[in-house]
């Protein structure tokens, strides 16, 4: 046995039958599609839910329940390990002046979601309802920081507080989120709007 003698077993590879290659191929002329009709045309397949023109079955059934999908607030996910990677790249200011006081907590930088955008983690158009902080990569976290964000998981909060940081969850409605991420849209004439209260469903969380 040599390398140039390696080959498949007889019958292991079977050539496919080519259609439309003459009568002798057993799939010539109409290529197995029969004569005329919708199914004989290119792209003329019939959907599985088509019932010959009669009312479809799912339309005969009454509607039950309701869905709140239209008003679902989908958060952009962010892991704490990613923040540490961007800190190592020098995308965040990690030190501030100590003129504010002697408390060590006051010397830790406070970042908002606007700082996350400025660091290049997201674009303003991708954040529709806010950002949620997750705990993946928490074993790499070593730089303390204070963060104001829409939502955060318990593991992410515990990981940041373990190294001396702090996480504050803040509710942003659409107007407040736009004022935070795009303050230039309001200019010097228009006043930055006040933050709205969270809805009753989320008041216990915040």
UniProtKB/TrEMBL annotation:
<dbReference type="InterPro" id="IPR030878">
    <property type="entry name" value="Ribosomal_uL15"/>
</dbReference>
<dbReference type="GO" id="GO:0005762">
    <property type="term" value="C:mitochondrial large ribosomal subunit"/>
</dbReference>
<dbReference type="GO" id="GO:0003735">
    <property type="term" value="F:structural constituent of ribosome"/>
</dbReference>
<dbReference type="InterPro" id="IPR036227">
    <property type="entry name" value="Ribosomal_uL15/eL18_sf"/>
</dbReference>
<feature type="domain" description="Large ribosomal subunit protein uL15/eL18">
    <location>
        <begin position="78"/>
        <end position="168"/>
    </location>
</feature>
<comment type="similarity">
    <text>Belongs to the universal ribosomal protein uL15 family.</text>
</comment>
<dbReference type="Pfam" id="PF00828">
    <property type="entry name" value="Ribosomal_L27A"/>
</dbReference>
<dbReference type="GO" id="GO:0006412">
    <property type="term" value="P:translation"/>
</dbReference>
<keyword id="KW-0689">Ribosomal protein</keyword>
<dbReference type="InterPro" id="IPR021131">
    <property type="entry name" value="Ribosomal_uL15/eL18"/>
</dbReference>
<keyword id="KW-0687">Ribonucleoprotein</keyword>
<dbReference type="InterPro" id="IPR005749">
    <property type="entry name" value="Ribosomal_uL15_bac-type"/>
</dbReference>
<feature type="compositionally biased region" description="Basic residues">
    <location>
        <begin position="30"/>
        <end position="39"/>
    </location>
</feature>
<feature type="region of interest" description="Disordered">
    <location>
        <begin position="1"/>
        <end position="45"/>
    </location>
</feature>
<protein>
    <submittedName>
        <fullName>Ribosomal protein L15</fullName>
    </submittedName>
</protein>
